[in-house]
Amino acid sequence: MKIALKKLFQQIGLLCDEDIEINGIEFDSRKINEGNLFVAISGHISDGHTFIQAAVDNGAVAIIGEKELKKEVSVPYYQVENSRSLLSKLANAFFQEPQYKHKMIGITGTNGKTTSAYMLHHILTSNGKTASLIGTVGYIINGEQHESSLTTPDAITLQKMIFESKDEYVVMEVSSHGLDQYRVACQMFDYALFTNLTHEHLDYHLDLETYYQSKKKLFNCLKTEGKAIVGTYTHWGERLYRELYNEKIPVFSYGQKKRRENIYLKSYTSTPTATLIVQDHGEEYQIHMKIPGKHNLLNALGSYICARDIGFSPGEVIYALEKFEGAPGRFEQILTPIGSKVIIDYAHTPDGLSHALETATYCINNDLYHIFGFRGNRDRSKRKEMVEISQKYCNHVYLTLDDLNGIEEELMVKELFELSKPYANVTVIKDRSEAIYQAIGLLQNGDGLIITGKGPEKYNEQYTYPTLTDKETVLRFLQESIIYDEKYHNQEQQR
Ligand SMILES: CC(=O)N[C@H]1[C@@H](OP(=O)(O)OP(=O)(O)OC[C@H]2O[C@@H](n3ccc(=O)[nH]c3=O)[C@H](O)[C@@H]2O)O[C@H](CO)[C@@H](O)[C@@H]1O[C@H](C)C(=O)N[C@@H](C)C(=O)N[C@H](CCC(=O)O)C(=O)O
Ligand SMILES: Nc1ncnc2c1ncn2[C@@H]1O[C@H](COP(=O)(O)OP(=O)(O)OP(=O)(O)O)[C@@H](O)[C@H]1O
Predict the structure, then answer these.
(1) Where is the major localization of this protein (predicted)?
(2) How many CB atoms lie within 10 A of CB 272?
(3) Ordered structural domains, the chain, with CATH
(4) Residue with the nearest Cα to atom 7 of ligand 2?
């Protein structure tokens, strides 16, 4: 794809007096190809402006930055207010505003983005629509799966994906980092959904107010006719709903309180199975979910409201929701041959953990074991609270390693021991695979083990057993014990 810089700039309200044609936009000097436009960004780790000469050497034909140039360069340099924000606009214009080819649904919130995105994707595809999915677990574009490195991809990758998607719908998770860094453009979404906001990412956003303001940016990215759907079951959601309502943005709320909408939650039961009773334009519907947990009822309610506003009938939405099996690594349950249960979940915030553990207590008859750890270099302030929650719900807690993210192992292990000190039921087993082996080995009929924090993600650390994910470790243990049991059984028979 090629475009005259003048034309591209014109589309986003910038002036350009050079006759230059560009064939792509890049913000990383190492990825520049001959004929690209380079956008220099002042980053969190390094400053893109220091790589301008490298970008020119690699073939950049024009540069955009937000700082004064220290040294002359041989290609035109355009100084702007904010390079990141401009990059987003440029990428959107370069890929011809691809959001208008699709119905776009953006989902933000501390917890429940992935689950809600999978639910909506499932409702759409179960009803004969094609839909792309962009989020933490992976990207599905035109029916093809791709690995994801970020929940919300960078501005260029994102616009390119939407441009290449031939799907009618695009359902995407929009992280607070993505919003803060302008990875999504203005006027992107037909629906913007907010699940909830609780303690998370304070290493990045520093305080909850700033975190909230980042999330709120999603609602500046609605198309002219776009609508907001806001979970009002956290007080931040209540506040967002009020603010959007006052700003005259069409907004639906969902939660346990009835408001002025035509669709609302009448009642629910989350034990032993999850059922919602929804009032929809005067009619009452029951939705029996396969996946447990009050949090998933709330995720289902948000998805229901969105799908109904898109135009699906109650029957179409309920049929799909009742068949929904869950998102990968979110409360995934594995039954063992002795009648115990292992659950794998992605909870990594105090609130997510409370929901996951409370749900686990409904699904387990006897003792509940819990294995989890903390990612290095991420919000340390939530750790104490998470241990407190865990030991409250569980009979036995094992603290173990998660991704170290460059933190020294010794430091993390020391912190785990500190965190475990006040509690008699909290033990440290640093090797994650070993912790899983030991805990499953202790399970009796009716007991359960919940392993949280990584969901389906691959281990970044090397552990004793050569497995790559929590699920693989669990299955390896079970496989080995079946082989062991068969051998033992055969030997007994021979005797
Ligand atoms: C802290 C953070 O979010 N950083 C993101 C940000 O990086 P940055 O712009 O600050 O980059 P930087 O490394 O300081 O470099 C500055 C500039 O110099 C350029 N550069 C650098 C080196 C060089 O040789 N040449 C060059 O041009 C870089 O390309 C960049 O443009 O922008 C990059 C491009 O979009 C992201 O890849 C990067 O994500 C990092 C890898 C990351 O781990 N981010 C996580 C925290 C994140 O975003 N997570 C959320 C989900 C969170 C959740 O809910 O769990 C997500 O959406 O995935
Ligand atoms: N609505 C909800 N409220 C509270 N906790 C939830 C909710 N939905 C899911 N959870 C919990 O949070 C965990 C993460 O859920 P999910 O992956 O759907 O959220 P997410 O917002 O996509 O998180 P991430 O951005 O980190 O991927 C789940 O495994 C579950 O334990």
Answers:
(1) cytoplasm
(2) 8
(3) 3-84 (3.40.1390.10), 98-323 (3.40.1190.10), 332-483 (3.90.190.20)
(4) 112
